[in-house]
Amino acid sequence: MYRGQSGMWAWLLHRITGLGVLLFLVVHIVDISLLGFGPAVYNEGIALFGTPVVRFVSLALIGALFYHAFNGVRIMLVDFVPKAASYQRIMFWTVMILTIVCFLPMAYFVLAPLFGVNTGNTASGM
Amino acid sequence: MRLSTGYGARPTSGGFETFSWYFMRISAIGLIFLAIIHLILNHVTTDVACTSYQLIAQRYANPYWRVYDWLLLTLALLHGMNGLRVVIDDYVRTAAWRIRLVSLLGTLTLVLFMVGTVTLITFEPVVGSLGPHCLK
To answer: 3-state class of A100 per DSSP?
Structure first.
């Protein structure tokens, strides 16, 4: 048992973020299928992603995906690199720091349009 | 007695669970690149409000983007649904319910795979759909 240690939190977060990303994937397959109904229907559907609420939901997804990806690398290191299991704590904190470091610039780009900041990724800057 | 090899535990039965264990790790390596590049393309280099029908029409004129998205669809769906299968096996106590839920999961996976694949293969931009990308 590793109750209360970093491994428990890493495992729990991996499971929760995995289920969250999967839920989004199911929604995303359905919203992309709107492509088959023409530009009007698809654009009306995809416009939802630009709304403030869905931008914050997207950010949660982005954070979840980064954590799941980096923690997945940690799991594979434990599985395939001899003695990696001796560095559990440092690897867990590396995962957390990498997640935050990658999340922050993404948060800037995803939220900037809400504050009228032009990051150069729209035609007009919105 | 199981002697420590210095490696983490892994399934050794050689059956489906062993295949599943390796599949999760191999698909993960692909997904790390596919999914993170996908995020950057649709949230950083292009804002999500500009990922309109017009942008997809332009992108999918190149068949390699369809292959890219199909790989992402297939690996993410199988990786995610197999993960949910493990969660069901962990928390659902009776064999009858495990069979029901895993069967439902398999059916849902197949349906979503078909919906996604058909969307990717059959997408043909309607005439006059090329134009400005951003929605306002």
So the answer is: helix
